[in-house]
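Look over both lines:
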Amino acid sequence: MAFEDLLEDPVIQKYLHELVGPKGMPVAAAPPDGEVTDEELAEELGLELNDVRRALFILYENDLAAYRRLRDEDSGWLTYLWTFEYEEIPEQLEEEMYRLLEGLEERREYERDNEFYLCEHCGIRFEFGEAMEFGFECPECGSQVEAMENTRLVTAMERRIDELRSELNVDAEA
């Protein structure tokens, strides 16, 4: 996928927005051709230098930007020249989807394997063992805890798991 096409994809825009936030989005959404300094980006985009640096560092941490350091012979100051490397975004999104799928599957099993009780007053949820330890009374307010049905939650997780598996072209668990 071409660099410009990547940036027009709403999924990739959302991914970048989640990474750098609203203040960093102008940096992520308008990568220059070739190398650029953080000061040049800040001036060109009309942003605070700290916001640009924060966005660049986040992009760097996520392997979406790289830098090269140059030392000024006279002053000894370091200059960082940044380049953007968005070619890996589709693979990173896919990895993120696999992590989400794995996390949802683990959480679904936890929800299936446990019995829960809820304090309606405080909104605190307890596993059966915890509820029993407290004599089926909320330790915060002393109210009676009631058995909690989590079928809708498990069903919603299963629906999302099926959607992710379909998007990733992964067969259902055996």
The longest strand covers residues 65-71. The helical segments are 3-8, 10-29, 38-45, 49-61, 89-113, 128-133, 151-168. The two ends are 34 Å apart (CA to CA).
